[in-house]
From TrEMBL, chains A, B:
Family of this protein: Belongs to the GTP cyclohydrolase I family.
UniProt EC number: 3.5.4.16
Cellular component annotations (GO), alphabetically ordered: cytoplasm
Pathway stated in the Swiss-Prot or TrEMBL entry: Cofactor biosynthesis; 7,8-dihydroneopterin triphosphate biosynthesis; 7,8-dihydroneopterin triphosphate from GTP: step 1/1
Identification of the protein by name: GTP cyclohydrolase 1
A Pfam short name: GTP_cyclohydroI
Length: 492, 492
């Protein structure tokens, strides 16, 4: 079972990749004040506690600079606390004549101005995970002045870069724009997506977890805020705002945005309720000590210290339970003994199945679109997507049950990971347990790549690992890749 | 014809919008060295010359800080000259075990690692306009080390933030990744889009200019570069790379990327050839003086000085004709006498037409999707999209020819603009010439919003202006907006 012993692959490598100081990552510190440096160090210390609480060694190569990266991501993600809307808008107000008095709208250039589809990320104040936002902003100019269009995005960005709740974010963007531009009215609509917590889902294998790469299965809410002549309740201009969104296939109906209930947004809160009812409890109780001697309580204290270092008040009502929620999320990635989890898997699980998910393609058996969610060990941020597994069936008609492969994927995903290692470990496990040639393709979105730093929304990573016959048979490999492509195409 | 006198709307406004110093925009200068400040000032001076060459007053409110913004955009857009790949990659190489020797691929974690759909912008070295890039990068790990996934985007970004040509960009990304990661091989595929020059299009009204908001009608090329085991010519791994792209519906066939001819990429070069043949010449000859006393030659010299200030060598082969091309582009926005251009328009143009582009909806006549390309006066960057015009037909069956409305749109688009003013001016022109109630909706992508600063790719701006009956009849306005939505939906 050597292939299942994850540890043996993580030894110090003799050929010594030179892990020199990360100049690019360190660069951001150069301009920091003493108190900022102190805050950054406090966050790094707290992250080390969290890593230990997960049963990890914070000094192993992959994790050594994780505290630094996480601190940087948190500070970048909350930079909005230090930005002033006045500074952004003031220089970008331009005099612009309006339509002739009495015949047209408003005192600005014409009527409504709407910027649609601004992609943003914010941090959920309830669980500290990033959530994705599609932001639409409109205003009706007044006083013969318009604002530079990019400033609408910039102001929205300032408030998204704070610990937020969707409705408050909409309200803050709306009132900031209203106060700084002094228009006849402002309209803001936000479509927000929050990643689901794995343990909030049904435990059986036919889970509702997203089976595609996009955000199906994520929790969505639609919120809005408006002021002045755009006030939703009374205004035909609000209808115009919605009509202009509709031109870009953004379909929001009047009243849609009133359906949001703050308490049902973040899955950590929903989960907390169900955990109180004794359902599916997995997180350790306060006082319980991890194998590295770090208690749950000290992990909670570490998160509170992060909140404090970000300039937040951990005793603010909305933040009181945040340390609990964040630790709860992290504990999904607790280091555990894989041998134990995989113990039940053996060739006994290889049996005849009648399953629509199988595609018989000569000898290649394909199990496609196994959903997963894992945690990037470099940034402590989720990456999620699907795993496709192909294997060469030696005995015709003998197949591995989909649920077995789901268990294998789940076992390796539920820990701090990198996608490359996850791919390899799944391939090696299947190869070792079933003694068959195997190909594994993992497709994933990384929140670390889309929510911070370079913010490449839409980027997506694919990795591939092949063992046994697939590594020498380019044709078999090609056929399997084509099978995935055909399947994706047929699912649209 | 007061409504056609653009000048009367651009007077100094008495209610004085406080155009205080733009703190946010100035902020970037604080960390600049003396020589950087000098370069920035040189670019600003050059932009002032260009504005004068366009017949504009660089001191009018809308333009006063344009030199500053353009200088900043150019410096941001070429920041890659100062970035070192080594700094980015070095701290992000992680030891990662490979598949068991002899049974799998490569010495890294598994096989191929591919990041798909990285959105980038670069500046065309031939005409200084930004072009859009969809970048796909792959590599096969070696020496038991993998690179942090976000570094693949970051390295691609370094080289895109320079004056570029698609093929060179692909080659530079490929060789930088190969040298810094030292993998078994690297694959890079770039899909690039370049905006079309208006005068390169047929002069008649049925132009092939993009009739939708996306980049239909833009010039596209597909280029690639590869190294080591991924070398395109010999490698089945190159096929795997293309197969992994196909999973995201990125369909590139082997050989597709060899079709690119550098000489046919930038429309400025194509145009230059056709201009040499005496076709459709619009740009003034050297020595010709604009109404503000600035010669074409001094505009060219100003652009050469910008190139120099960006650290480029204006005498480098690929840059020799760039000043000519950029000035040629800018001259599309030359300030001109609108009265002259619109002289031919009158009620005589209102006549019976049988035209599939008309939708008769009770009294409202709709002319949808009139394409346009204009120039943002704040950043000297294109914004482009479509104009929808609705009017209330007083005499049943009497319609305004589509080509007449196209001329109106074209007249106001061909100058330095802001979208709000463009919308108002079109509405006022139609209202004034034809004496009818009118509604104008403009939908546009702004390259200033997606290629610089906050880089909100996908964001899109809609503006609306109403005159006459439409300003009091919310129902008529709603019907027209619904007509556009229905039309967009039916066109997919």
């Amino acid at each position: 079972m050597g292939a299942l012993d994850a540890g043996c692959f993580e030894e110090e490598l003799e050929n010594g990749v030179g892990l020199e100081e990360d100049v690019a990552e360190i660069g951001w510190e150069s301009g920091m004040t003493d108190s900022e440096s102190e805050s950054a160090r406090a966050i790094e210390d707290a992250v080390r506690v969290l890593l230990q609480g997960l049963g990890e060694d914070p000094e192993r190569e992959g994790l050594r600079r994780t505290p630094h990266r996480v601190a940087k991501a948190f500070r970048e993600g909350t930079r909005g606390y230090k930005q002033k809307v006045k500074d952004i808008v003031q220089g970008a107000l331009f005099p612009e004549a309006g339509l002739e008095t009495g015949t047209g709208h408003a005192g600005g250039a014409g009527g409504l101005v709407v910027v649609r589809n601004i992609n943003l990320f914010s941090y959920c104040e309830s669980c500290l995970l990033p959530f994705s936002i599609q932001c639409h902003v409109g205003y009706v100019p007044s006083g013969r002045r318009v604002v530079g269009l990019s400033k609408l995005s910039r102001v929205a960005d300032v408030f998204s870069k704070r610990l937020q709740d969707p409705q408050r974010l909409a309200n803050e963007i709306c009132s900031a724009l209203h106060n700084s531009i002094k228009p006849a009215g402002v309209a803001v609509a936000l479509h927000c997506w929050h990643i689901q917590f794995p343990e909030a889902l049904p435990c059986n294998s036919n889970s509702t977890y997203p089976s595609k790469l996009d955000m199906q299965g994520w929790i969505q809410v639609l919120v809005s805020s408006s002021s002045g002549v755009l006030k939703e309740e009374k205004s035909s201009l609000w209808d115009d705002f919605l009509a202009l969104l509709k031109l870009k296939s953004i379909n929001i109906e009047r009243g849609d945005t009133n359906l949001y209930s703050a308490s049902s947004w973040c899955p950590s809160r929903v989960l907390e309720t169900s955990l109180c009812n004794g359902h599916c409890a997995r997180s350790p109780k306060n006082g319980k000590t991890s194998k590295t001697g770090v208690t749950h309580a000290s992990m909670m204290a570490a998160v509170a210290s992060i909140l404090h270092s970000l300039g937040e008040d951990p005793s603010r009502k909305e933040l009181v339970r945040t340390p609990h929620h964040y630790v709860q999320w992290l504990m999904n990635s607790r280091s555990s003994n894989l041998d134990l989890r995989l113990n039940g898997l053996s060739k006994a699980n290889s049996c005849n199945v009648v399953d629509g998910n199988f595609t018989c393609l000569n000898e290649i058996q394909s199990v496609l679109n196994i959903p997963f969610c894992s945690q990037c060990e470099h940034h402590l941020l989720p990456f999620h997507g699907v795993v496709h597994i192909g294997y060469l069936d030696k005995q015709e008609g003998k197949c591995i049950e989909r649920s077995v492969l789901q268990s294998v994927v789940h076992s390796f995903a539920c820990k701090l990971q990198v996608q490359e290692r996850l791919t390899r470990q799944i391939a090696e496990a299947v190869y070792s347990i079933f003694n068959i040639g195997v190909i594994v393709v993992v497709e994933a979105h990384h929140l670390c790549m889309i929510s911070r730093g370079i913010e490449k929304v839409g980027s997506n990573t694919a990795t591939i690992a092949v063992l046994g016959q697939f590594s020498t048979d380019a044709k078999a490999k090609g056929l399997f890749l084509q099978t995935i492509a055909d399947n994706n195409a047929s699912e649209g």
